[in-house]
């Protein structure tokens, strides 16, 4: 077992983990952050996408020990007392989700796309979300939601203090 | 005053693009997927699966696994002498159907790769999986039969004890049924003096590939055993657990919590559910099983996998005179819950919107050593639609007219509704002219045809093709009496209940079981309008057999047209039931009351009382009529009188690079007539998602086995779901002809996009290269296949190809070849 200390959604945790533990399993099973889900095991689907120090990562592709001393933001850390994150609002407004299983990862990746391209073209959105699979929406409304969110103030930011580093 | 009375009448909820109630928990991660559930003392399961497609298990050594740290138990089928239930077939399509027993765990005979031979139970999922590697199983490998055509030969048997691979043969003949003429006569006549189009099309095997892997948690503590499971069919599952395990139904509670997509793929009762139940009961501890994605692709049921041999007869001017369909359907290793019936659903759909005077549908189902095949979005109807819409394009090419012209010549005119089809279905309403006109306009049909011509003339390496699909489908499963005639094992009704809470809130209980469709929102809109209560005051409860105690769940685009009608009727009963209470409170006669916008008013006066006030009054029960019981809740069970027949016109423009074979979607327009729209936002979403699943069949997806029966597309690396980068934005619109078979005039929409889009895309690709002598490309139309077709175009092989029913048939048996039909 290896001791790790990590900040997740603004709170600091310290745990002993098996070195082979994936970040997504640490989040779900140790911290109970079940908002982040597992979809594929082969890093194709992106359902488990979270932010590590402000950049998106597929948490099935990161070991828990790798985040020692770092900061993780999950879908559960996006909304603040003031309300939903603009990207969450935009997904709701534009019906960019149906079953909602891909949604946490899709929203986290969409924010990352806007971090990279604050004023994205449709192609930049589509290429930026290519690593996140959705089986329900046909992507039409997801692309629309991300484009609309880009126009909203604060859409590229998350509540995490490290964002934008 | 209640909120009811303040609600302006013009704010009708039906038709409004309400943002979904479901979203709040889903966008914040506040979800209850089955795999999120953790219970005290909960154990985790890992399955040991056969790597062989066909084998005999000669021995299983579980000792090493049992000795592993944190492993609680390892079981094989021998540890459950009374069995653990069975995966039932609910629809034997003929009384003689060959239906191998499908037990959750293999005792000796493995019929497909992925079948479960043992289960490891441990304190964590990781420990269970580690120990599963330690279970040592000896197999005696047997020859496997994988392809339906091979299976038909009965040379290698999927189930040697059955003596044949043929499961059932089912026919619908219009002459025998008295719904039309003799198809053989029509074909014979066309051979002499008309057009005969003969084709063989392949419906490749697909995987539903819902995003949430299946998961089951069973809690055996307490009086009732509770099962949470990622299913579309909690009620059917509960019934079949009781029916096959002997557990009293009243001791079983099934809950479908948040379910991450289904598309038909979660309407099965699965081996994994039965095994998790059996293990939890045996150990007296909660148990969880969650599949990996590879297990999901391998062991959740597959879809499609048919060969379609088709003969279309027409007069020289392109008027259709007959259609004969010979379907060969690969059921996989077992006849799944409705696996045998899915291809048969095509029987009423191959003739589609066209006025065929003669029709015959033959369906042979066969067993193979592959994963069992069952409903995948559209289930039987996409296959039928693909065949007829491809054929109509071929007919247009033969006659030398525009594909839309040949369709219009043959389709049912709007003034001819209601129309009894050649298979005996009554299409209640529709307007193919209107949908087509609108689609052409949105598409810029004439401009794109002009561009196509120009590109052809200039020899542009990138050619443009235009694909048409004017589809209809039958959905809203289903009138119970019809199902009875088809030997289906259940009814097709749906149930709803409405509870009027004293605080003015309304609970709607539905027997449908949504998993992404937005019933919570749409049902709220229906009830808000019906009862005149605010949208936000309606709560929709579903997916728990202890709450929604009666239901037949969600599949076959049935939820709104059947389940929604049950909701309407329950609401109407509440209104009727509350009326005498209102009259009593108002000291008026029942006959003098009228109900409008949530309020009972005494005609001709300003006196009135809101329905939610009546609810509060019956809760207090201080003052109510002597002859009534104090309560206005109501429930309703609705058995549909007929199916629902949505339709639409889909137009697709594809750009095909003739140098590389790569094709790109340029534009896609669809105009669907789904009757009354409850929520246009949800409808659009259903259409978008459906389109991409249908387009994916045309372009990208295929479940592929190697010669040994190993699924080589066993992960998302190889089973290629479309991404944002592969897809485009769609143009969608609606025309409306109200359904006449339900109160609101609604038709199903969940499967429409998938049913319509596949042939539109393939027609477009073929249209782009037809001038080179190509008239078919097998799905998925990968660049490699398109390129191969372009290379072989005009070759001698193509010119001499035989129609399918000749012994030497050379029609597209190989990917990318371009089989030539006999024509006239």
Automatic annotation (TrEMBL), chain A:
The keyword Oxidoreductase applies. This is Xanthine dehydrogenase, iron-sulfur subunit. It comes from Phycicoccus elongatus Lp2. The keyword Oxidoreductase applies. Its EC number is 1.17.1.4. InterPro entries: 2Fe-2S-bd, 2Fe-2S-bd_dom_sf, 2Fe-2S_ferredoxin-like_sf, 2Fe-2S_ferredoxin-type, Beta-grasp_dom_sf, Diverse_Oxidoreductases. Residues 2-78 form the 2Fe-2S ferredoxin-type domain. Pathway: Alkaloid degradation; nicotine degradation. PANTHER family: OXIDOREDUCTASE WITH IRON-SULFUR SUBUNIT. Keywords: 2Fe-2S, Iron, Iron-sulfur, Metal-binding, Oxidoreductase. GO terms for molecular function: 2 iron, 2 sulfur cluster binding; metal ion binding; xanthine dehydrogenase activity. It is an enzyme of class 1 (oxidoreductase). Transmembrane segments: none annotated.
TrEMBL record, chain B:
Keywords: Molybdenum, Oxidoreductase. Residues 28-143 form the Aldehyde oxidase/xanthine dehydrogenase a/b hammerhead domain. InterPro entries: Ald_Oxase/Xan_DH_a/b, Ald_Oxase/Xan_DH_a/b_sf, Ald_Oxase/xanthine_DH-like, AldOxase/xan_DH_MoCoBD1, AldOxase/xan_DH_MoCoBD2, AldOxase/xan_DH_Mopterin-bd_sf. One of its GO terms (molecular function) is oxidoreductase activity. Residues 1-23 are annotated as: Disordered. The keyword Translocase does not apply. This is Nicotine dehydrogenase chain C. It comes from Phycicoccus elongatus Lp2.
């Amino acid at each position: 077992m290896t001791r790790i200390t990590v900040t997740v959604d603004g709170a600091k945790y310290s745990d002993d983990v098996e070195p082979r533990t994936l970040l997504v399993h640490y989040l779900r099973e140790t911290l109970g952050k079940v908002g982040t889900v597992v979809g594929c095991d082969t890093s194709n689907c992106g359902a488990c996408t979270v932010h590590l120090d402000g950049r998106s990562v597929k948490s099935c592709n990161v070991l828990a020990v790798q985040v020692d001393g770092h900061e993780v933001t999950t879908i559960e850390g996006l909304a603040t007392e003031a309300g939903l994150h603009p990207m969450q609002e935009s997904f709701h407004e534009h019906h960019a989700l149906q079953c909602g299983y891909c949604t946490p990862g899709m929203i986290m990746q969409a924010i990352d796309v806007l971090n990279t391209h604050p004023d994205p073209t449709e192609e930049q959105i589509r290429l930026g979300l290519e690593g996140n699979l959705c089986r329900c929406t046909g992507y039409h409304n997801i692309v629309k939601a991300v484009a609309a969110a880009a126009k909203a103030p604060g859409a590229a930011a998350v509540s995490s203090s490290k964002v934008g580093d | 005053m209640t909120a009811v009375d303040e609600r302006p009448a013009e704010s009708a909820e039906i038709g409004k693009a309400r943002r979904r109630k479901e979203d709040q928990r889903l966008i914040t991660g506040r979800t209850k997927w089955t795999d999120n559930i953790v219970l005290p003392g909960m154990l985790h399961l890992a399955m040991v699966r056969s790597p062989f497609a066909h084998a005999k298990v000669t021995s299983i050594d579980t000792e090493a696994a049992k000795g592993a740290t944190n492993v609680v138990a390892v079981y094989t089928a021998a540890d459950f002498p009374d069995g653990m239930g069975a995966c039932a077939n609910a629809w034997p399509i003929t009384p003689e159907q060959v239906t191998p027993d499908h037990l959750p765990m293999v005792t000796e005979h493995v019929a497909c790769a992925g079948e479960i031979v043992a289960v490891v139970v441990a304190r964590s999922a990781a420990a269970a999986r580690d120990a599963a590697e330690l279970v040592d199983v000896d197999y005696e490998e047997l020859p496997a039969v994988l392809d339906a055509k091979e299976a038909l030969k009965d040379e290698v048997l999927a189930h040697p004890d059955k003596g044949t691979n043929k499961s059932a043969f089912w026919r619908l003949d219009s002459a025998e049924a008295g719904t039309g003429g003799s198809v053989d006569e029509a074909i014979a006549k066309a051979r002499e003096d008309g057009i005969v189009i003969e084709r063989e099309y392949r419906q490749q095997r697909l995987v539903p590939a819902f995003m949430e892997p299946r998961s089951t948690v069973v809690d055996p503590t307490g009086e009732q055993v509770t099962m949470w499971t990622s299913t579309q069919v909690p009620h059917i599952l509960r019934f079949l657990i009781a029916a096959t395990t002997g557990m009293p139904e009243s001791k079983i509670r099934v809950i479908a919590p948040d379910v991450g997509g289904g598309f038909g793929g979660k309407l099965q009762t699965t081996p994994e559910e039965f095994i998790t139940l059996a293990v939890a009961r045996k150990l007296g501890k909660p148990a969880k099983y969650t599949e990996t994605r590879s297990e999901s692709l391998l062991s959740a049921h597959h879809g499609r996998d048919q060969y379609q041999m088709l003969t279309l007869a027409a007069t020289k001017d392109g008027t259709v005179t007959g259609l004969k369909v010979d379907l060969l359907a690969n059921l996989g290793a077992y006849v799944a819950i409705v696996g045998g019936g899915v291809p048969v659903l095509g029987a009423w759909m191959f003739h589609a919107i066209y006025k065929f005077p003669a029709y015959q549908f033959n369906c042979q189902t066969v067993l193979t050593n592959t994963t069992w095949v069952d409903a995948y979005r559209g289930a039987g109807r996409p296959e039928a639609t693909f065949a007829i819409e491809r054929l109509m394009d071929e007919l247009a090419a033969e006659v030398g007219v525009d594909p839309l012209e040949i369709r219009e010549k043959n389709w049912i005119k709007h003034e001819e509704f209601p129309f009894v089809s050649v298979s005996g279905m009554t299409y209640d309403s529709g307007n193919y002219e209107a949908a087509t006109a609108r689609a052409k306009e949105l598409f810029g049909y004439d401009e794109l045809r002009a561009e196509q011509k120009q590109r052809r003339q200039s020899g542009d390496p990138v050619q443009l093709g235009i694909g048409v699909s004017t589809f209809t489908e039958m959905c809203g499963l289903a009138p119970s009496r019809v199902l009875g005639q088809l030997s289906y094992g259940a009814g097709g009704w749906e149930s709803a209940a409405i509870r009027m809470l004293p605080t003015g809130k309304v609970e709607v209980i539905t027997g449908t079981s949504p998993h992404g469709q937005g019933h919570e929102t749409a049902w709220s809109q229906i009830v808000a309008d019906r009862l005149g209560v605010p949208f936000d005051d309606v709560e929709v409860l579903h997916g728990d057999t202890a709450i929604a105690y009666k239901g037949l769940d969600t599949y076959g685009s049935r939820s709104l047209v059947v389940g929604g009608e049950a909701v309407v009727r329950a609401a109407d009963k509440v209104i009727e039931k509350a009326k005498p209470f209102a009259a009593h409170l108002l000291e008026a006669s029942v006959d003098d009351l009228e109900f409008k916008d949530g309020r009972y008013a005494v005609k001709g006066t300003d006196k009135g009382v809101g329905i939610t006030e009546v609810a509060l009054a019956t809760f207090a029960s201080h003052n109510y009529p002597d002859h009534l019981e104090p309560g206005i809740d109501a429930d309703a069970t609705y058995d549909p009188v007929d199916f629902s027949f949505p339709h639409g016109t889909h137009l697709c423009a594809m750009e095909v690079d003739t140098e590389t074979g790569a094709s790109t979607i340029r534009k896609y327009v669809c105009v669907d007539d789904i009757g009354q729209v409850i929520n246009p936002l949800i409808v659009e979403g259903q259409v978008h998602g459906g389109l991409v699943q249908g387009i994916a069949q045309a372009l990208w997806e295929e479940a592929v086995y190697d010669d040994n029966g190993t699924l080589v597309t066993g992960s998302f690396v190889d089973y290629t779901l479309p991404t944002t980068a592969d897809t485009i934005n769609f143009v969608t619109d609606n025309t409306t002809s109200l359904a006449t078979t339900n109160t609101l005039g609604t038709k199903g929409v969940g499967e429409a996009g998938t049913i319509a889009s596949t042939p539109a895309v393939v027609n477009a690709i073929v249209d782009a290269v037809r001038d080179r002598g190509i008239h078919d490309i097998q799905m998925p139309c990968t660049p490699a296949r398109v390129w191969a077709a372009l290379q072989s175009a005009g070759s001698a092989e193509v010119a001499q190809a035989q129609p399918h029913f000749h012994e030497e048939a050379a029609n597209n048996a190989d990917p990318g070849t371009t089989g030539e039909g006999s024509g006239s």
